[in-house]
Every structure is written in structure tokens, then in C-alpha cells.
Amino acid sequence: MSDRSSPFDGIEELLDKLNRQLETAARSWEQSVDGGGQGRDRRQFNFSMDVGSGSTSLDIADEDEEFIVTVDVPGYEADDLDIRLAGELLTIEGEREHAEGHDDEERGVYIRREREVQSFSRKVTLPAAVDSDGVDATINNGILTIRLPKREPDSESHRIDID
Known about the structure:
By secondary structure, this protein is an alpha+beta fold. It has one domain (about 10-100, about 115-150): Immunoglobulin-like (Sandwich). It contains 2 helices and 8 strands; from the N terminus they run αβββββαβββ. The chain has helices at about 10-35, 105, and strands spanning about 50, 60-65, 65-70, 80-85, 90-95, 120-125, 135-140, 145-150. Strands 1-6-5-4 form a 4-stranded antiparallel β-sheet, with no helix packed on it. A 4-stranded antiparallel β-sheet has the order 2-3-8-7, with no helix packed on it. It is elongated, with a radius of gyration of 21 Å. The chain starts with 10 loop residues before the first helix and ends in a 14-residue tail after the last strand. InterPro entries: A-crystallin/Hsp20_dom, HSP20-like_chaperone, Small_HSP. It comes from Natrialba magadii (strain ATCC 43099 / DSM 3394 / CCM 3739 / CIP 104546 / IAM 13178 / JCM 8861 / NBRC 102185 / NCIMB 2190 / MS3).
């Protein structure tokens, strides 16, 4: 037969990718339905705004004086991550380059290759305002920890005029 490529090349890879995305969507939906997991306060937050070729797991803890966001980012370095805070919306994005040494793939060493996730984006609406000047982020062993100190409520009274 000729060396022409088959129109079915890559369909298994495409189906695997679709299956992973559906599993991620189902997991996000389940979290939003059951309140996001176990905890002393089961208020519902908006966790399910995933974008990109992969998803990453995320936890938010309410520790009296601060919120602590923990994100699984295996294989990402600090330079690969971008964290932004706009009001009460926290955005965490990651993008990394393909790993070197793809020669093995061309030689047929891999039986299955799923580690093609190269980027992610998570947006989380925090339940209260935070002090953006006091935010601290660290990464250790593939776990990103973001500490967001709560902003003190404004105790001053403000007059509101009626038009």
C-alpha cells in the first residue's frame, strides 16, 4: 500500500483528549452541586471557570484572617505561572513549553502519551474582599500556595445622597 496517511490517524488521541475534558467538566459540575467538598462552611463559590487544554485541582480555605488557595501545578515553575487579583476575582494561569527530547516519540518508544497539557487557566471569585498589598504566593514540589489576607471591613459611615 502507499505511504499516504490515513484519515483516521489521530482519532484515538482526539477521543482520549475529549474524554479527559469531559471528566474534568463532570468533576467541576459535581463540586459545584455538592458545595465544593467537605468543610465547616459549605457556602458555594464559583470554582468552575476552567479554560485551556487541561485543568488543575484547586482548594480554598478560610483561615479567620486570610484565605489560602492551594493549586496543584506539577511540572510548572514560578516563571510559568501568572497570578492576578482584580477585586474579588483571582485568576491563576500557567503555560509551559513542551519537554525536550521528543525524538523518543518519533522512534516509537511511547505506547501512550498523555502529558501534552501545556496550559491552564482558573478564575475564582473569593467570598470577601482581600488586601491586595499583602498577598503572598509560593510554589513547592508542584503545589502553589497563595495567601490572601482579608481586608478589614470599612467601619466608617458614608452618607449616600438620594437623587
